[in-house]
Amino acid sequence: MAAVIDGKAVAEDVVGRVKVLAAELRAGTGIVPGLAVVIVGADPASQVYVASKGKKAKECGFHSVQHTLPADTAEAELVALVETLNADPAIHGILVQLPLPEHIDSGRIIQTISPDKDVDGFHFVNVGKLGTGELATAFVPCTPAGSMLLIERLRGRDLSGLNAVVVGRSNIVGKPMANLLLAANATVTIAHSRTKNLAEICRSADILVAAVGRPEMVRGDWVKQGATVIDVGINRVAAPEKGEGKTRLVGDVAYGEAAERAGAITPVPGGVGPMTIALLMANTLVSASLAAGRPRPAF
Ligand SMILES: Nc1nc(=O)c2c([nH]1)NC[C@@H]1CN(c3ccc(C(=O)N[C@@H](CCC(=O)O)C(=O)O)cc3)C=[N+]21
Fold this sequence. Notes:
- By secondary structure, the chain is an alpha/beta fold.
- It folds into two domains: 30-116, Rossmann fold, CATH 3.40.50; 142-273, Rossmann fold (3-Layer(aba) Sandwich), CATH 3.40.50.
- It contains ten helices and eleven strands.
- A hairpin with an 8-residue loop joins strand 9 and strand 10 (247-250).
- Helix 1 (7-29) runs parallel beside helix 10 and helix 6 (142-155) packs parallel to helix 7 (174-183).
- The mean pLDDT is 97.
- The site of 5,10-Methenyltetrahydrofolate has 16 residues, from strand 4 and helix 10.
- Residues 5-120 form the Tetrahydrofolate dehydrogenase/cyclohydrolase catalytic domain.
- NADP(+) binds at residues 168-170, 234.
- Residues 141-289 form the Tetrahydrofolate dehydrogenase/cyclohydrolase NAD(P)-binding domain.
- One of its GO terms (molecular function) is methylenetetrahydrofolate dehydrogenase (NADP+) activity.
């Protein structure tokens, strides 16, 4: 049976370090890390995530602001808000919650965020740095960065000789995850919905990362004996066994089956999700430290 990777505990560990470093920064320079979260529209799931980001930022001793804009906000207005935040010296991290309403070009909004405040790591400058291995100065997207910290704790920082398979090719998770694994010397395959022999390719993985957004798509017999399985999926599905209209969260991996073969596996919830928020705090602390002219803290 697989060891369960306690993402919540590792996230608390990361947040604990952020708190200490934020207090040191404040004592040494008077600078308080500032995080601005922008949400457009009232999607209930998005509001829950945004609230937990604000709560965690306060817990870290950060200056935390939230801008909630109506769903019909014009693109130009959102651009103007981002430009104001870019120019605000009290703000070191800007996160515009995705997805945005259809009438707004999210690419344009992301590229408006100053690369120095792009704690999501979505700006071309940060994507390019990650792609060229300039990890020492990049902001790396929080979900892959958090997943990588979990992998590091289990398998070390050097993944030479190990096969890693990433299922999913999004700009937010799949592609940056593959780049991080490659930077750690793993042999990396990116698989996706059009891949032939998906099960067979997954079975070659010593490290299997599932980020497809399809509930329980990765089955137990896709998992190599002893593999490290990182489940990035968060899918809300009906749970009639809990009562009428009830739901539960499942990942992109069929957990019970996969746990019989994996060496270690992340649960959902309590795996990658808490790490995503912890790395957002870490990125904001890094940004504030750099703005203060201090060396970049490592996580
Ligand atoms: N610009 C942008 N950056 C993001 O990082 C971003 C975003 N937009 N849009 C939405 C997604 C989603 N996301 C999550 C973060 C934490 C949990 C999390 O903490 N989940 C917990 C609890 C889940 C629950 O109970 O609902 C867990 O997995 O244990 C989940 C999802 C960040 N996102």
